[in-house]
C-alpha cells in the first residue's frame, strides 16, 4: 500500500512538471520504477498505459485553456505513434541485463539535456507566428516516439525543445500541443508493449496509482503553465533524472563502481545540481527585473501643465 501511495505521489508530481514544461512525466516515472527494480520493458509499458489517461485529461485541460494547436498535434502525433510502436517492439526484444543500462543511458542523456537547456537558455521565444511544416514535424515525431518508448520517456524532452528552438510557436501552445499529441504516442507504445511482452509482466495496480496522481495534477498543470517559472523547474527536474540514472549505471554490470567512487560522483552531481538551480533562480529574477524596468521605461511621461 505504501508503494502505491508513493507511486501516486510520483505520478502527481511528474504530471505537474510535465504539464508545466511539456516534458518529464515518462522520464521521471520510469526512473523511479527502474530504481525499485522493475524490468525496463515493463517499466516503460506501465508508464505508457498510465499516460493514456493522463495525456487525455492533460490534453483536454490544455485545450480548455487555449494551449493547443491542432495542426501541430496532427502533424507530429501520427508519426510519433509510429515511432513509439517501433520503439516498444525493439525494447521488448532486449534482455533485461542489456535493456536496463541502455535505458538509463537514454534517460541520463535526456536529463542532461533538460538540465543544461533550461539552466543556460531558458525558453526561446523568437520567430513566433511562422508555420511549423510537416517536413520538420514528421521526422521529429518519429524520432521522439521511438526514444519515448525505448527510454520510458522522451516525447517531451525531444519534441518540446525542438519546437521551442524553432521559435515559431509560443511556449504555452508548444507545451499544450506536445502534451495532447502524446495521447496517440501512449496508445501506440502500450499496444507495442502488450504485443511484445504480454500483460502478465505489467502491474496494473502501479498503472492505476500513477494514473490517479497524474489525473489529479493534469488540470492544475495546464493552469500553472502560465505561472510557474519553467527555467527553475527544468533545472530541478533535470538534476533528479541525472542523479538517479547515474546511480543505476554505476551499480550496473557495465561499471560496477566501488562505494567510494559512487559517493564521490554523487557529491559532484549534487554540487553541480545545486549550482544549476541557484543560477536558474537568479537568471529568472534578473529577467523579471529587466522586464519590469522595460515596462517602466515604455510608460509615457505625464503631461506637463
Automatic annotation (TrEMBL):
Pfam families: TauE. It is a multi-pass membrane protein. The keyword Transmembrane helix applies. Keywords: Cell membrane, Membrane, Transmembrane, Transmembrane helix. InterPro entries: TM_pro_TauE-like (IPR002781), TSUP/Inactive_protease-like (IPR051598). Coiled coil: none annotated. GO terms for cellular component: plasma membrane. The keyword Transmembrane helix applies. Belongs to the 4-toluene sulfonate uptake permease (TSUP) (TC 2.A.102) family. This is Probable membrane transporter protein. It comes from Asanoa ishikariensis. The lineage of its organism: Bacteria, Bacillati, Actinomycetota, Actinomycetes, Micromonosporales.
Amino acid at each position: 500500500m505504501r508503494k502505491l501511495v508513493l507511486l501516486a505521489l510520483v505520478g502527481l508530481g511528474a504530471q505537474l512538471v510535465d504539464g508545466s514544461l511539456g516534458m518529464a512525466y515518462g522520464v521521471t516515472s520510469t526512473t523511479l520504477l527502474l530504481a525499485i527494480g522493475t524490468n525496463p520493458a515493463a517499466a516503460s509499458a506501465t508508464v505508457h498505459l498510465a499516460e493514456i489517461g493522463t495525456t487525455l485529461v492533460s490534453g483536454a485541460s490544455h485545450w480548455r485553456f487555449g494551449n493547443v494547436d491542432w495542426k501541430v498535434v496532427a502533424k507530429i502525433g501520427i508519426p510519433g505513434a509510429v515511432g513509439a510502436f517501433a520503439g516498444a517492439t525493439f525494447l521488448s526484444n532486449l534482455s533485461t541485463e542489456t535493456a536496463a543500462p541502455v535505458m538509463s543511458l537514454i534517460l541520463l542523456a535526456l536529463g542532461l539535456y533538460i538540465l543544461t537547456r533550461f539552466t543556460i537558455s531558458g525558453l526561446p521565444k523568437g520567430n513566433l507566428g511562422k508555420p511549423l511544416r510537416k517536413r520538420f514535424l514528421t521526422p521529429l515525431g518519429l524520432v521522439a516516439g521511438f526514444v519515448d518508448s525505448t527510454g520510458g520517456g522522451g516525447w517531451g524532452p525531444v519534441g518540446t525543445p525542438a519546437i521551442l528552438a524553432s521559435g515559431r510557436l509560443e511556449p504555452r501552445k508548444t507545451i499544450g500541443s506536445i502534451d495532447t499529441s502524446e495521447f496517440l504516442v501512449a496508445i501506440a507504445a502500450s499496444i507495442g508493449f502488450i504485443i511484445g511482452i504480454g500483460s502478465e509482466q505489467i502491474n496494473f495496480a502501479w498503472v492505476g496509482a500513477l494514473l490517479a496522481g497524474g489525473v489529479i495534477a493534469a488540470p492544475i498543470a495546464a493552469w500553472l503553465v502560465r505561472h510557474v517559472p519553467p527555467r527553475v523547474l527544468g533545472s530541478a527536474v533535470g538534476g533528479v533524472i541525472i542523479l538517479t540514472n547515474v546511480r543505476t549505471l554505476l551499480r550496473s554490470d557495465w561499471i560496477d563502481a566501488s562505494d567510494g567512487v559512487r559517493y564521490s560522483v554523487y557529491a559532484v552531481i549534487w554540487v553541480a545540481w545545486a549550482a544549476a538551480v541557484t543560477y536558474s533562480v537568479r537568471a529568472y529574477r534578473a529577467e523579471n527585473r529587466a522586464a519590469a524596468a522595460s515596462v517602466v521605461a515604455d510608460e509615457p511621461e505625464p503631461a506637463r501643465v
